[in-house]
Amino acid sequence: GAGVSQTPSNKVTEKGKYVELRCDPISGHTALYWYRQSLGQGPEFLIYFQGTGAADDSGLPNDRFFAVRPEGSVSTLKIQRTERGDSAVYLCASGNDRGRGYTFGSGTRLTVV
Amino acid sequence: QKEVEQNSGPLSVPEGAIASLNCTYSDRGSQSFFWYRQYSGKSPELIMSIYSNGDKEDGRFTAQLNKASQYVSLLIRDSQPSDSATYLCAVFTKEKLTFGTGTRLTIIP
Fold first, then answer.
1. Does the pLDDT value for residue A1 go beyond 60?
2. What span, in angstroms and rounded, lies between the C-alpha atoms of A70 and B22?
3. What's the order of all strands across the beta sheet hosting A65-68?
4. What pLDDT sits at residue A98?
5. C-alpha–C-alpha distance, residues A49 and B5, integer Å
6. pLDDT digits 0-9 by tens, A32-77
7. How far is B104 from chain A (nearest CA, A)?
8. Chain B residues with CB inside 8 Å of A101's CB?
9. DSSP B52
10. For residues B95 and A50, what is the distance between their CA atoms, to the nearest angstrom?
11. What is the pLDDT of residues A10-23, one digit of tens each?
């Protein structure tokens, strides 16, 4: 596609529920990143994929968070047993040349009530 | 010490003046440096990248890098109201981009 696509754009869920957030990167981009941004803060790194594998998942806050990229393109961020503190904008970015900057999607605003 | 530090602002600059945004980083092994602009409610947009010491100019924007001082800056000349946004400094280290908290810039007409 022309840009990084994230769906849904907004998600409201009840505490304790499971959610999946989808990222469709720019076609051909091998690197894919997930970030989380809270109000008034910069994006916080969660996980990085190079191809199908998670090259660095050190930013995932706990084992309720998991992400996959089975075919090296679309990625899904999965959050189990959501908590109110998980409320944030989840951003996906993709690129081809590590260290050359990445293009962000428009984000998914997650609200846990 | 935070990996990437920015003054959160807000920074107010009259229209037509130069806006100066600053950023410091802690990891001397950092390789690439970026400035992203983020409008309220929108996602970050890459506006400048710099990889070697010195200045890099692109239109009204100039990025400056001093690796010895671990310092990156962004100058915006002839500031316009449309430049009002949050500016995020990002540093590429150990295979990932680390962001500062951003500086909120307001251009006053």
1. no
2. 40
3. A5-7, A19-24, A75-79, A65-68
4. 65
5. 26
6. 999 999 998 999 999 999 988 888 999 999 999 999 999 989 999 9
7. 9
8. 32, 34, 46, 49
9. S
10. 10
11. 999 999 999 999 99
A-facing residues of B in 21-80 (CB < 8 A) are: 31-32, 34, 36, 42-46, 49, 51
Q: SS3 helix, strand, coil % of chain B, rounded to 5?
A: 5, 60, 40
Q: Sign (positive/negative) of CA torsion A10, A12, A15, A16?
A: negative
CA distance linking residue A40 with residue B46, whole number of Å: 19
For residues B96 and A99, give the distance between their C-alpha atoms in angstroms, rounded to a whole number: 8
Read off the DSSP letter of residue B70: T
Nearest residue on chain A to B41, judged by CA atoms?
A: A106
Instruction: Give me B50's structure tokens.
Output: 């710099």
Measured between CA atoms, the residue of chain A closest to residue B6 is: A42
Sign of the four-CA dihedral A21, A26, A31, A36: negative
In this complex, the residue of A40, A42, A45 whose CB is nearest that of residue B96 is: A45
- What are the backbone angles phi and psi of residue B87, rounded to the nearest 5°? -110, 125
